[in-house]
Design brief:
This protein has about 250 residues and is an alpha/beta fold. Helix content is about 40%, strand content about 25%. The protein is globular, with a radius of gyration of 18 Å.
């Protein structure tokens, strides 16, 4: 049974802004194009599908998609896009039969899970022999620009990323999953103004900010938001390029 947790509710709070700050359907299309060449014929389970941006594009590319999402409001929005092929559920206790699926995808999900090892064990359980997990790794890295420079003081608040390619390979092996390929997704681009970025930070849209206490908020977050708003022409959108690795794993 799905559990509504503080983490899931934090993503519900961000649901209104999620599509805009995550590149919208255009980014979903690019992510689907990165995933599609690595998928086998048959159903694709997207774990942590958010509002379904990637899944709409996968479906347009001819892949039958089902999805699981922990945050109720996110799942509701995905349901509007995908219909009854979305379930409210937990990555660590998937509502699917063992050895029943040829493909699982996880896009920017593993790094926010409380227990990556358990999630990978569940993926291994539901994958059929020879089935694949295609995962796009944690937090994308933006090429240097003035927004990135202004936000740098917040780096101390960001947890160590658990799903680096090396850590993922080690954890996956314990779950019976073998690395088939390591690659990089095509860079994706987003236009974001300093005011928009400051709004997203103050609204705790980014997962690393959801539990920041008042003292650290005043000491670190407030000055960064102010620095962003103080940049020249803060309503003008800046063009950003983001890069992130991709790993394909197979269940032998």
């Amino acid at each position: 049974m799905a559990q509504v947790t503080a983490e899931s509710l934090s993503f519900d709070t961000a649901a209104d802004e999620y599509d805009a700050y995550h590149g919208g359907l255009e980014r979903g299309q690019k992510a689907a194009e990165d995933l599609a060449p690595h998928l086998l014929p048959g159903t694709v389970l997207d774990i942590g599908l958010g509002t379904g941006l990637v899944d709409v594009a996968l479906r347009e590319l001819g892949h039958p998609v089902i999805g699981v999402e922990l945050a109720p409001e996110m799942a509701s929005r995905a349901h509007k896009r995908l219909g009854g092929r979305v379930a409210l559920g937990d990555a660590q206790s998937l509502p699917f039969a063992s050895a029943s699926l040829p493909n699982v995808v996880m896009v920017h999900v593993l790094h926010v899970l409380d227990d990556m090892d358990q999630a990978l064990a569940e993926v291994s359980r539901v994958l059929a022999p020879g089935g694949r997990l295609v995962t796009v790794h944690g937090v994308p890295i933006a090429e240097p620009d003035e927004l990135v420079e202004a936000e740098e003081p917040l780096a101390v608040l960001k947890p160590q990323v658990p799903d680096t390619p090396e850590r993922l390979a080690e954890a996956a092996a314990k779950a019976g999953l073998r690395v088939l390929e390591e690659a990089a997704v095509n860079p994706y681009e987003i236009d974001l103004s300093p005011h928009q970025y400051a709004d997203s930070i103050e609204g705790r849209v980014w997962s690393y900010l959801k539990n920041v206490g008042d003292e650290d908020w005043q000491r670190l977050v407030v000055p960064v938001a102010a620095a962003l708003r103080a940049l020249p022409d803060p309503d003008r959108e800046r063009h950003q390029v983001w890069r992130v690795p991709l790993t394909v794993l197979v269940k032998d």
